[in-house]
Input
Amino acid sequence: MFLLNQLVSTRKKIKGQLANALTLINLGLGITAIMFILQGSIWYGFLFIALAALFDRFDGMVARKMKIESELGKQLDSLSDLVSFGVAPALLVQQATLMPLSFVGGLAVVLFILCGALRLARFNITDSPNEFIGLPITAAGCIVAFSTLFTEQLPATFYVIFMICLSGLMISNIRVKKV
Amino acid sequence: MFLLNQLVSTRKKIKGQLANALTLINLGLGITAIMFILQGSIWYGFLFIALAALFDRFDGMVARKMKIESELGKQLDSLSDLVSFGVAPALLVQQATLMPLSFVGGLAVVLFILCGALRLARFNITDSPNEFIGLPITAAGCIVAFSTLFTEQLPATFYVIFMICLSGLMISNIRVKKV
Output
């Protein structure tokens, strides 16, 4: 009987932490992407950001379906998103194409991550169940990461303007319906 | 009279956002540190993490002194801390000494940032005015960054063990008095 109770309690605990574990995997994949970018492996950097996006999609879904949404989960999700869809994609673009622009390229990277952080901080303190206010950092980060597939066709200045536009959209008041 | 009112209102707004502006400068310095690390400039990476720590010390102080503490400020602070004292110092150690360890070094980097994120998420949902629970990520990040000054004297494996210990301390229940 004691063992059965222990088993049930452990199962509940594991279920409760499942969404957070998925969020931590998302963060781990984002960090791995950055480490690949650090070594100049643009392709692996892109691949790991894409994998992080997959897990980011899962964790919210699992939390809602299993009714295990928590305040800790929400905080952890924002922290992970800043790394996986703010820092990692911005560094990916820098390493892939912005290096020759030096200072201007660096400014675009800083702006993108700052606006992403502002977007996440605002998201955490507002309660808007059916829509996002401002372009979500997950979307902005995935678009930026995907755009690095075209660095041979597009000039570096395009990426600077593109990142400035996405930064503006993140802190704007446009409303995006949740899907 | 209208102009005076406008001036007073603008002054209040600027005062209200001063702490958040300092937090964003902290984040900007952390991102700049990462960009230097990306280019292999260990010394500049260390310098910018130290500058970020200086601004991190200021923002909380300003918010408390001017009584402009806000929920947005708290969220922004955590997001900035993860980048400036989690991601940046871990990458600094990786670039400075862990590269030859490959997988094991990468694991230590991931563990350090994951534990930092868990520490920050827990901090955001607990209300403990006089003490920190678990080693603050700011302290852990600064210690790790400072330790890279001794990479010629210490073996890479020391850094792996050191980062694992600090990771454990961040998610532990030890209590650190706020100063």
Observations:
- Residues 2-38 of chain B form the longest helix (37 residues).
- Chain B has a mean pLDDT of 90.
- The helical segments of chain B are 2-38, 42-65, 71-98, 103-125, 137-147, 156-171.
- The beta strands of chain B are 131-133, 175-177.
